[in-house]
Amino acid sequence: MSRNLTMNPVLEASAARVEKFHWGELHWFVSGSIGNSQTTTLGRCILKPGQENPRHIHPNCEEILQVISGTIMHTLGDEVYAMNPGDTIAIPQNIVHNAKNIGTEDAVLMIVFSSAYRETQGEV
Hints:
Strand content: over 45%
Oligomer: single chain
């Protein structure tokens, strides 16, 4: 089986790319820039208690978000959804959204994008 990847298809946990923010962290495991996918981005978002990421859109892809642990309120356009562990939301391209941790522990969210090079734009 031949693969056209620039890296080993297995990414060790210690090799994840981590972005830190005042509201939490983004951990990236699969993407075009990492070199282990040509079509998809996979990551984990950690939201600190009481914190939320800024409202934003993804102009070039859809996002799927699944709550692994914690409790969040997810805003999608003008709608707000309470989400618990195991709950999943499909976020269409170009729809403004964000998540707020309403619990007392870190909220852990798996995030998948339908592009290996996801784009993010803040709310205008």
